[in-house]
């Protein structure tokens, strides 16, 4: 199994499995063209915890929990669990915040961008172009010595922190379930309408998340890494998995009658193309500077990477900022302060990129 998932056909299989399962999760209740969206689902978790009060996006998404725990199981089984931390935690946190803000201006992470495309949403084209542009800028910094520092082995407890937090979220959800017709129990917030109220059955979603976390950890699946490796090294290994995800999601959507081509009226999407591009350019640059797309950061967290866990927490907090301060978009368009946030985010990321380069002597 280890050798298979590390092979060309292995990564293609992983992309195909994710594409099929994402389309099926949509059929089973997840929002349109959002069978899986790491950024959107982390945003929903932030809402469920009360970090923002946007009532239409509040739900603890079991898929995210499954990604982390599934990756941890795989890492332990194959003796790849390595608790480790590096340097510049506050930088990683800030990158996570701005990655989330950029994604919520576009309304989706790289995973959802390709799933939107596979569902017929033409607006996703501009998001994917922006993502590519942001990653390309990031590769320029990488070529010129950008580095957040080395990682070093640390206590096992450090690597366990994010998986334990995710288990805590699951326990909260089981102990404090939604009461029919109510958007709040003693602890958690639940959406009564909108995307947050649309979800696949809890345990089915958790099982899918565990499975994806397991195979993604084995294959090193990463959407940002696919574009980065192509630009930096001319390698297409990860890109084949990325393409496979699009193809199999598209075919599954066709089979399930979920393919609806066009630009207007797409689910949880807007047509302000400049900011579809700009939001994902910000997100792509932040992902490149942090070393992985949001899914990859969850999988790394599961195998003990404390740096990735800091980035994940930054994204969850960033979701709170995005909705509390009018940065996130909606189907009506970009939030009142979303454009300013993208410009500020790009400036911050460029500052990080320029200032954290190793000086050559």
What does it look like?
With 361 residues, the protein is mainly α. It has one domain. 64% of the residues lie in helices and 1% in strands. The chain is built from 15 helices and 2 strands. It has helices at 2-5, 8-27, 38-48, 62-77, 89-106, 110-118, 123-143, 156-175, 202-219, 223-233, 237-255, 273-290, 294-302, 306-324, 338-355, and strands spanning 84-85, 152-153. A two-stranded antiparallel ribbon has the order 1-2. Helix 5 runs antiparallel to helix 12 (273-290). The chain is globular and about 60 Å long. The model has no long low-confidence stretch (mean pLDDT 96). InterPro entries: Seleno_YedE, Sulf_transp_TsuA/YedE.
